[in-house]
Amino acid sequence: MNNTGNSFMEATGNIDYTFTNNFMFQIILNENNLVLKGLISSLLHLPLEEIASVVIENPIELGKEIDQKDFILDIRVKLNNHTTINLEMQVLNEYNWPDRSLSYLCRTFDQLCSGQDYTLTRPVIHIGILDFTLFPKSPEFYATYKLLNIKNHEVYNDKFILSVLSLKQIELATEEDKAWEIDKWSRLFSAKTWRDIKMIAENNEILTSAAESLYQYNSDWIVRERCRAREDYERHQQYVKEKFARDEATIKEQEVALREKEAIIEEQRKLLEEQEALIKSLKEKNAHAK
Q: Rounded CA gap, 212 and 103, in Å?
């Protein structure tokens, strides 16, 4: 990144740490309430004027020492002091997202104290922003899931909601997605250069504010160190996953080779048995002939 001033409008080149860096994503939403409100407004199709407050319940502290716990980064938000929203940016496909997101949602939903009436349970929403396609056979840009009757599609409970935004499927954005500018948010999150950021944020106050925060925190040494640590962690996770896949492939190849060798040995055993039977038969004939 080339910094030539105090604004992202003067920056050129590639962005060192983009929104897809989990820590960068979290610190911006932690520190810029306007951006947090704007993102939730778009994702929930909720007009800004209907958002009285958004409060992060698990804020991060920049001064804290980095440890493994910091690498589990979801943002828990209380909307209008009523609805709990979990926001999570996920770059690596660990092939467990449906189970993982459901587990997060269930833990958040289980919020009642002993003795409280079940009707007091408040809505919970888990929104995953994924830099991969969750279901390759049926790709979608932005999908929302609820508990419902599989016959007549009647909603069983609207307090329990899962949403998935795929940064890899922006071209599948519907007209409704575009009306709520979810596609613009996704392009902002996916942008790799300051030139792209400028084009995406142009004439949009909230996206411009998000871009300014991105520029500010790319210039902050502490934030950069945390972002670098997050990238190192993801690289290690990717290495472990790829190594596991390679080892698993090697084991499968060895198993196939072993089965082939066992089949050859079995064929040779049968052939040997046939030869031994033939020799025995010939010996018996010779013995009778004498």
A: 34
Strand pairing partners for 85? 77, 125
Tokens of 213: 């925060």
Tell which wins on pLDDT, 286 or 34. 34
93: closest CA among 251, 242, 232? 242
Query: Pick from 18, 21, 48, 44: which is nearest to 34 by CA?
Result: 48
In terms of DSSP bridges, do strands 74-79 and 155-166 run parallel, antiparallel, or are they unpaired? Answer: unpaired
Per-residue tokens: 287: 């013995």
With respect to residue 7, please indicate whether it lies within any of the assigned structural domains.
no
Output the six-digit token pair for 162: 């899962």
Q: How far is CA 203 from CA 184, 196, 206, 208, in A?
A: 12, 14, 9, 8
Q: What is the pTM of this model?
A: 0.80
- The per-residue pLDDT for range 217-256, each reduced to its tens digit, is 999 999 999 899 888 877 767 667 667 768 788 888 888 8
Domain match, 269 and 145 both: no
Secondary structure tally for the chain: helices H, strands E? 8, 6
Report pLDDT for 151. 96
Give pLDDT tens digits for 125-159. Answer: 999 999 999 999 999 999 999 999 999 999 999 99
Left if phi > 0, otherwise alpha if psi is -120 to 50, otherwise beta: which for 79?
beta
Q: Are residues 30 and 110 in the same domain?
A: yes
For the record, the structure tokens of 204 come out as 């949009």
Q: What is the pLDDT of residue 69?
A: 45
Alpha carbon of residue 216 to chain centroid: 25
First-to-last alpha carbon distance for the chain, in angstroms, is 100
CA distance 131 to 91: 5
Q: What is the pLDDT of residue 253?
A: 85
CA angle 26, 27, 31 (to 5 degrees): 120
Q: Which residue segment(s) compose the domain that 170 sits in?
A: 19-190
